[in-house]
Amino acid sequence: MKIFSAAFGPHDHNTYDGVWHNQRERYTRRKHNIPWHYDAYPHHNTVDKMNRQDNSSGGEFYNEYWKPEDPKIFAYTTTIGGVAQMPELESKKEFMDWKPNNLWDYKKDGNIYYIDHHQSHAAYAYLNSDFDESDILAIDGRGYKYNTVFFDNNGTPHDLNLSIGELWDFFSKELGFGTLGASKVMGLVGYGLAQPHKILMELYMLLDEFWNIENKRQDAIWRKMWDITQRENPRHIAHTLQRATEERVMDAVKKYKTSDNLCVTGGVAYNGYMNELLTEEWKNVFVPPAPGDEGQALGTYMHADYTLNNNVHIPDVYAGKEYDFVGDEKVDIKEVAQAIADGKIIGWFQGKSESGHRALGNRSILADPRNPSIKSIINHTIKQREDFRPFAPSVLEEHYQDYFDTKTSSPYMSRIVKVKSDKIPGVTHIDNTARIQTVNREQNEKFYDLINEFYKITGIPMLLNTSFNCQEPIVETPEEAISTFNRTEMDILVINDYIMRKMG
């Protein structure tokens, strides 16, 4: 049974047909794909469609994909903000009023298959893991019937009613980082006070009150928190918000623990500090590569394929399109490793693009982690972003515990851990932490081999790795990679097996 899946929400709007995962921002070239436009889909190749702006995607789905006469299932999930995108389905009260009692529940009418927002997140995480059984924490801003859900290992949902993502988005906007700027707030955490003073204690108590009262009384608290943002240093606010988040989440989830394994998913699963803290309570903690709404269509597809077809479809993390490219000069991987060791900054474009918001070695900017000045250089001359933003190390899996104080590997750059070595200042944050990616050869052979060659030259088994972009979404095509390379101060660009250099 063929399944077409879609996710309707205010972030990336994804589709999946069982073969290719479409992350819309990569094609619209607008961060988080805001606003919604018809040109979000690369198969729209006419001028009329490319220029059309419309908040409803219903016509596209019905006309391009889901035709009732075809023997296929249309599986979808939504958020409160996404319902308006599909008015044809909004009228179906039996779907909109439905609330699951188990992870694997679903609502089906003919060839329409519906699951809740957090079921989609949870299915994506659990089916991507190698756990036979697991607890699952689905945590974000808002879903549809739930805000934050903890599924025990029987699939029973426990509504935690925590709007963690909403709070982070609020502070992101009020601190000047805009909508969906939580990662910037997180970058400030390490700069904040360890012992909060009077104003921060006030904020801490407000956050606690926010999570313990009914929504109808929250407006006053929003106003008080806004007032604090006008009086307090952003870095201290960020630190307080992070500590409060960690304490509240741990208090909320520990009492429901039923397994040694935990899957963490939803937009808040990008909080690497929280993920690492959870390893103190659970032996194994897994975060999938696209835990936010950018992975929702995949999760919905996987849920439907599992329940209807009894099939566990595990998508490759490198699930984008692959592009042919022929340049003038082929390159040897040893040459690239030597260039990085010599201080060059490399644009690295290989094969299919990664799912999610992390560059995992196919759409990356790479540099020498030994260089104490490299963070400032890349932030100012390439990324054009705030100087406090850190960079991640991609480390050979067999060596990560030599440099980082953590129990388990982190293949999708999902945990922020303590650094044990003073040899890698380029990837060490102000609070002596790093958001690590562990790399094995099976996961990404070419990227592993590059890091290994750098290791042979320098004795350091890792590279600084950041996403291949300059404020815009991560590059998707060779043409976008070349454009970003030409307008920034990267030294070398490698596209598949070919190298490009700057003149002069």
Structural account:
- The protein has helices at 25-28, 47-51, 58-65, 87-90, 93-96, 117-128, 164-174, 182-188, 198-210, 218-231, 234-253, 272-278, 296-309, 333-341, 374-383, 400-403, 445-458, 478-486, and strands spanning 2-8, 15-16, 21-22, 72-78, 107-109, 112-114, 135-139, 148-151, 157-159, 261-265, 284-286, 346-349, 363-367, 392-396, 404-405, 415-419, 433-439, 462-467, 492-495, 498-501.
- With 504 residues, the chain is an alpha/beta fold.
- The chain has three domains: 2-129 and 290-309, no CATH class; 164-286, Nucleotidyltransferase, domain 5; 333-501, DHBP synthase.
- The strands form three sheets. A nine-stranded mixed sheet has the order 15-16-17-14-18-13-12-19-20, sandwiched between helices. The protein has a six-stranded mixed sheet with strand order 3-2-1-4-6-5, with helices on one face. A five-stranded mixed sheet has the order 9-8-7-10-11, with helices on both faces.
- A hairpin with a 5-residue loop joins β8 and β9 (157-159).
- α6 (117-128) crosses α13 (296-309) and α11 packs parallel to α12 (272-278).
- The protein is globular.
- 46% of the residues are buried.
- Residues 36-62 have low confidence and may be disordered.
Can you tag this structure with a few keywords?
Nucleotidyltransferase, domain 5; 18 helices; globular; alpha/beta; nine-stranded mixed β-sheet; single chain; DHBP synthase; 3 domains; six-stranded mixed β-sheet; 504 residues
